[in-house]
């Protein structure tokens, strides 16, 4: 299970399309006043020795989910601090969407203040499972209360880039993500040493270029 480095270390990434979020410690987050909302989400992952097409290393399998609004995010949600601790609130939401997992404070990874009109501190938890345990979570999620409603299905993040430099992770980053989910994914991959920072930057650059070209095709020519 990965551990979080000191707050403020390495929170800024130079890659395109990643919001600059202020990182704070768990203690600082707990001291925030009642005007702040707390969201708690979980990144579940496992080492994966498999190879795509027998030649592309999978390296890790990371779970995210397709939400009811068509956006990608991590399992979890908002926690009402008047009634729940962060972990109890997170586990309550996970029970509705996954059905078989409980996280603890030992799984805590980071907290970030989000930008925008709403004052939200986004907490991320991360737990490394075995590949068999991860698969069991996927099976359990299909039978959870929220499956087909608020959660449309779990997806595995492709942590590889194909020869065309777009297939795999860059294409995945071209999707739409809810709030801080994209940033949290990149941040976790970096601090848990799951992907070198230069590879993250390359994937982000390729995804940004793909989105730019797609937008140019939609806009009328100025000539």
UniProtKB/TrEMBL annotation:
Chief place of localization: nucleus
Transmembrane annotation, as ranges: none
Source organism of this protein record: Bos indicus (Zebu)
Keyword field: Nucleus, RNA-binding
Quaternary structure and partners: Homodimer. Interacts with TP53BP1 (via the Tudor-like domain); interaction is abolished following DNA damage and TP53BP1 phosphorylation by ATM. Interacts (via the cytoplasmic part) with SDC4. Interacts with TGFB1I1 and PXN.
Lineage: Eukaryota, Metazoa, Chordata, Craniata, Vertebrata
Name this polypeptide is given: Tudor-interacting repair regulator protein
Tree of life domain: Eukaryota
Localization, UniProt: Nucleus
Claim: Metal-binding is one of the keywords in the record: no
CDD domains, per the entry: NUDIX_U8_SnoRNA_DE_Nudt16
Summary of the function given for this chain in its UniProt record: Key regulator of TP53BP1 required to stabilize TP53BP1 and regulate its recruitment to chromatin. In absence of DNA damage, interacts with the tandem Tudor-like domain of TP53BP1, masking the region that binds histone H4 dimethylated at 'Lys-20' (H4K20me2), thereby preventing TP53BP1 recruitment to chromatin and maintaining TP53BP1 localization to the nucleus.
GO terms for cellular component: nucleus
Molecular function via GO: snoRNA binding
PANTHER family cross-referenced by the UniProt entry: NUDIX T16 FAMILY MEMBER, TUDOR-INTERACTING REPAIR REGULATOR PROTEIN
């Amino acid at each position: 299970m990965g551990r979080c480095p000191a707050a403020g270390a390495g929170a800024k990434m130079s890659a395109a399309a990643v919001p600059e979020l202020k990182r704070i410690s768990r203690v600082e987050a707990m001291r925030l006043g009642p005007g702040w909302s707390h969201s708690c989400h979980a990144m579940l992952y496992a080492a994966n020795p498999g190879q795509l097409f027998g030649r592309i290393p999978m390296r890790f399998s990371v779970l995210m989910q397709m939400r009811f609004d068509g956006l990608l995010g991590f399992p979890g949600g908002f926690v009402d601090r008047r009634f729940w601790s962060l972990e109890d609130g997170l586990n309550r939401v996970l029970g509705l969407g996954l059905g078989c997992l409980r996280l603890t404070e030992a799984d805590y990874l980071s907290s970030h203040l989000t930008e925008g009109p709403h004052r939200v501190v986004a907490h991320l938890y991360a737990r490394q499972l075995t590949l068999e345990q991860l698969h069991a979570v996927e099976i359990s999620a299909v039978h959870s209360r929220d499956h087909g409603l608020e959660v449309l299905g779990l997806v595995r993040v492709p942590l590889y880039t194909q020869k065309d430099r777009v297939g795999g992770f860059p294409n995945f980053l071209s999707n739409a993500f809810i709030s801080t989910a994209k940033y949290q994914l990149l941040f976790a991959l970096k601090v848990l040493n799951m992907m070198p920072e230069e590879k993250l930057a390359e994937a982000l650059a390729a995804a940004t270029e793909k989105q730019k070209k797609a937008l140019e095709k939609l806009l009328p020519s100025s000539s």
